[in-house]
Amino acid sequence: MATGIAVTLTPTFSSFTRPTRFFPATAKFPLRLQASSSTAFIDTTNQTDSVAVTRSSNPLACPICYNSLIWITDPGLSVDTIPRSSLQCSTCQKTYNGNQTHLDLTVTSGAKSYGESMPASTELFRMPLISFLYERGWRQTFSVWGGFPGPEKEFELMKSFLKPVLGGNIIDASCGSGLFSRLFAKSGLFSSVVALDYSENMLRQCYEFIQQENNFPKENFNLVRADIARLPFVSSSVDAVHAGAALHCWPSPSAAVAEISRVLRPGGVFVATTYILDGPFTPVPFLSTLRQNIRQVSGSYIFLSERELEALCKACGLVGFKCIRNGLFVMISATKPK
Ligand SMILES: C[S@@+](CC[C@H](N)C(=O)[O-])C[C@H]1O[C@@H](n2cnc3c(N)ncnc32)[C@H](O)[C@@H]1O
């Protein structure tokens, strides 16, 4: 429902240290964020980084059975122990091993003679060149043409949505090269962070960025390869799922959000950013044709409307839909009912 009242937010960045690369610290965007009837007013000015939840049990599950994975090697979620990690499904007995940079928890993990390809919007990010360029210019273009406020402001804004689950565990779903996963870890606001992506090369790049950083908190940080539509977590085991700039890349947003809803515990929070196109543009006759064409060519669900995003969350059992907007940028949030 785009019955917009416009509010101007001026987030402060006092508690923010600048851990990412290639993003200028200066706030370049006017951040005129539009609020609608279901839109939250986010006051980040007096934010206390209070820690409300503490949870550290292992939520990892078999992507086939959704039952707990049991550690074969010494248990531990840490960047440094990934290469030695070995877990087994308590039900189907399948074993999942860590490689140099991440734990592969896709269904086809370990199948040497079988592989599947995804739509272009997923496959694109598996290319080594794209993974390399992602934080070296690619992501910045979202701000130029898409109204994305930039990682620092996005982090500040999402923290307000995540307030009820601070101190819990968080999955950075479709993390790319770990832009936000690294911020989550360094903020100390969560008991554990899983950086999850389908792209091996994005995960590799994330691992390299972490290795280049001094004093990165590697404990309780894990890199996991998984399909968003088959999340390797036990049901109701996760406090927060963040998905930055990814919903429009997923082959089926409904399959993805349903999975996110499954893994969230009651009261758990989903927060995501994507591109939105509605309001004054809705009557444009060719808009739905344009969307259909983009979908057919790339598999991308780019430019959903606010109404569609709200319906998507509701259809997947999430409540309390809120969003904040800036041009084509939207940050949405919804909660698993208690
Ligand atoms: C535009 S990037 C977003 C990266 C980062 N979250 C950000 O905010 O910049 C989209 C990411 O979605 C991931 N992705 C696409 N399809 C996926 C799928 N089926 N399962 C998991 N991740 C997927 C891509 O690999 C890519 O890293």
Automatic annotation (TrEMBL):
GO cellular component: plastoglobule
Compartments, record wording: Plastid, Chloroplast, Plastoglobule
Database matches in PANTHER family: METHYLTRANSFERASE, OS08G0411200 PROTEIN
Domain Methyltransferase type as annotated: residue spans: 172-271
Alphabetical list of Pfam families matching this protein: Methyltransf_11
Subcellular location, principal: plastid
Keyword field: Chloroplast, Methyltransferase, Plastid, Transferase, Transit peptide
Biological process according to GO: methylation
Gene: LOC101515568
Record protein name field: Uncharacterized methyltransferase At1g78140, chloroplastic
Chloroplast recorded as keyword: yes
Sample GO molecular function, one term: S-adenosylmethionine-dependent methyltransferase activity
Keyword Cell membrane among UniProt keywords: no
Family matches, as SUPFAM superfamilies: S-adenosyl-L-methionine-dependent methyltransferases (SSF53335)
Family named by the database record: Belongs to the methyltransferase superfamily.
